[in-house]
Design brief:
heterodimer, A: about 325 residues, Rossmann fold, 6-stranded parallel β-sheet, two-stranded antiparallel sheet, B: about 325 residues, alpha/beta, 7-stranded mixed β-sheet, 5-stranded mixed β-sheet, about 20% strand
Chain lengths: ~325, ~325
């Protein structure tokens, strides 16, 4: 096993564990009443965000749904800014105005954090349009769930992106349930990637539990987009271990199904790779300690940070003032 | 001053702003090779090419969203709706995305975009194609709404809109495209700011507020009543409905003590109601009569010609309202 590859896996493990622990602690803070509104956790899907963040290049842009914590963290948002946003604090990534569903971090290429299913696909196409318009070579990644593939916004964005060969990758994180409704009851297709053909795109379909596999497939699509060959549509099989949001006990699936799926936990998979490669347990534990410290610091920061001032309300409605 | 049409004035604004800034582009149905469904964009493709004058498929939600995404990342799009009636399928893009992003991102992401196109009833195009949409969009914080009534305002406001760093809803009067009026030469680069009303006619007896196509109906009634009945109206064109020039309205009402508001949109929950609220709140002691509104009748637009003209704000209904508030009803 090459040194480089092991180092990569150690970083992957660190990032995935950071997301997992961040989500677990946000669930706890939610239960304590420190976080309001909706909270959609990314637990079980970490390998996809980490694969994307480690495959794109500086300057590339990423759009995500309201299940956005994992992607933002993987791209480099600090856990402090992320947790403070959940706590509705001024030091949050959106200064407490967005909350869980509306993370933004332009410096790291993260363009939201969007709450209307299917509504952000056209925005991502617009970001890709901009790169093409300016003759620049950034690629835009757009994530959404399989639940978004039935709404009109999906169709129009995919249609225009295909028509104009925009440098984008549309990534369906198929976590099997649109809120509480399984794919079998929302789509006539079991293989969603065939939709790609309808938009003149390359389609691809694969399991998303192994970060290396995700990286490999993503890279091909990103390379195609960057070299001017147009957008792709990827369907990634994944699974969320928690409910749709905090108010969802997940009664629409069996305990057996969940246990079966947990055997493919992306974090167990990466740990297995590290152990198979003979990585020292002390090294793994050091990463775990480091993650715990970062999460603890984030919680402390979010607790202590100030709430936004009332003046922020009026400053951020429009840029121009009347 | 030279005279050009409302359509030509808009076209000049597009040419001048696209020449000034390469980040500005026009996108919409039939804007390029067809030269514009209403010919506003005539000649743009020939000068700027397909990179900047972009024909789209019939997919308003898609191309409105692409415009917003492009604006979020640094371009300055102008998105044309062939008619504002078709903006309803892109409503979510304008409301949930364009108007919210600057706030939701904590002031980190700007959305400098102009949505423009014809607004209001034309002739006998029936219920689905006759909407006047300002009430829907002026309701939303985060948007600016312009509704020019003259060629000069059309040009000056569109140039202002394109230079603003926020989303703008720009409502052109569908029946005004051939209207001629004075417009300064391009060399003057006139920019008309949002939120500044135009006093179209001065008078001491009644404040008459109107915009868009019915502005011209209202102005004609005011001129006629001055001659026929000696009733002198102060005629105010607000030019933008978000924001509204509150000062101009209040100063006029303080002078005339009476007010009639004329608009093509339905009165229920419309901008006229907003102005009535402003006046009763801030000028209560100046009022000598209730403030009246003349809007379209509270029904979907009919096709039949006789019924359609009844639904729109007619000169007769405007005159009746002015006479009522000035207590000069004909006997």
């Amino acid at each position: 096993m090459s040194e480089v590859k092991v180092e990569r896996w150690l970083d992957d493990y660190r990032e995935m564990l950071l997301i997992r622990r961040f989500e677990e602690e946000s669930a706890r803070a939610y239960a304590q009443g420190k976080i309001g509104g909706f909270l959609h956790l990314y637990i079980g899907q970490e390998s996809i965000a980490v694969a994307a963040a480690t495959t794109i290049e500086k300057g590339d842009l990423v759009f995500q749904t309201y299940r956005d914590h994992g992607t933002a963290l993987a791209l480099g948002m600090t856990p402090e800014a992320a947790m403070a946003e959940l706590f509705g604090k001024d030091t949050g990534c959106s200064r407490g105005l967005g909350g869980s569903m509306h993370y933004f971090d332009v410096e790291n290429g993260f363009y939201g954090g969007w709450g209307i299913v299917g509504g952000h696909l056209a925005l991502a196409a617009g970001a890709a349009f901009r790169s093409k318009y300016l003759g620049e070579d950034q690629v835009t990644l757009c994530f959404f769930g399989e639940g978004a593939t039935n709404i009109g916004g999906f169709h129009e964005a995919m249609s225009l992106a295909g028509l104009w060969k925009l440098p984008a990758v549309f990534i369906c994180e198929n976590n099997q349930y649109a809120m509480g409704t399984p794919l079998s009851r929302t789509s006539p297709l079991s293989d969603l990637s065939v939709k790609a053909a309808g938009y003149g795109m390359v389609g691809d379909r694969f399991e998303g539990y192994d970060v290396d596999v995700v990286r490999e497939h993503l890279k091909k699509a990103i390379d195609r987009a960057r070299s001017g060959e147009g957008p792709s549509f990827l369907e990634i099989e994944t699974y969320r271990f928690r409910g749709h949001s905090m108010s969802d006990p997940g009664k629409y699936r069996t305990a057996e199904e969940l246990e079966e799926r947990k055997k493919k936990d992306p974090i167990l998979l990466i740990l297995g790779k590290l152990r198979d490669a003979g990585v020292d347990e002390a090294k793994i534990e050091a990463i775990e300690d480091e993650v715990e410290e970062r999460i603890e610091a984030a919680l402390k920061h979010a607790d202590e940070a100030p709430f936004p001032e009332e003046s922020l309300l009026y400053e951020t409605v429009t840029v121009e003032k009347f | 001053m030279r005279e050009i049409t409302y359509r030509e004035a808009l076209r000049e604004a597009l040419f001048e702003e696209m020449r000034r800034d390469d980040r500005v582009f026009l996108m919409g149905e039939e804007v390029g090779h067809y030269d514009g469904a209403y010919k506003v964009s005539q000649g743009l493709l020939a000068e700027f090419g397909e990179r900047r004058v972009i024909d789209t498929p019939i997919a308003e939600a898609g191309f409105a969203g692409i415009g917003i995404g492009a604006a979020m990342t640094g371009l300055r799009p102008i998105v044309e709706f062939m008619s504002w009636n078709f903006s309803f399928v892109a409503f979510d893009q304008i409301i949930s995305n364009a108007s919210k992003t600057y706030s939701m991102s904590g002031g980190k992401i700007k959305v400098p975009i102009v949505f423009r196109g014809p607004n209001g009833a034309a002739a006998q195009v029936a219920a689905q194609h006759s909407h006047t949409v300002e009430a829907f969009y002026a309701h939303i914080p985060g948007l600016w709404v312009a509704n020019p009534s003259t060629p000069r305002d059309a040009k000056g406001l569109l140039k202002a809109a394109i230079r603003m760093d926020d989303p703008v809803v720009f409502l052109e009067g569908e029946t005004l495209y051939n209207l001629k009026g004075e417009v300064p030469d391009a060399s003057e680069d006139e920019i008309i700011p949002f939120g500044k009303a135009r006093i179209a006619r001065e008078g001491k007896d009644c404040t008459l507020i109107a915009w868009g196509a019915p502005f011209h109906t209202a102005l004609a009634v005011a001129d006629r009543l001055a001659k026929e009945a000696g009733i002198e109206c102060d005629v105010i064109d607000p030019r933008t409905l978000r924001p509204i020039d509150e000062t101009a309205i209040l100063e006029s009402v303080a002078k005339t003590n009476r007010c009639v508001i004329v608009h093509e949109t339905w009165p229920y929950g419309g901008p006229g109601a907003e102005m009535v609220d402003l006046i009763q709140r801030e000028a209560f002691d100046y009022l000598d009569a209730p403030v009246l509104r003349v809007g379209s009748l509270d029904v979907p637009m009919p096709y039949a010609k006789n019924l359609e003209s009844l639904v729109l704000p007619t000169p007769e209904r405007i005159e009746t309202a002015i006479r009522r508030v000035t207590y000069r009803e004909e006997r």
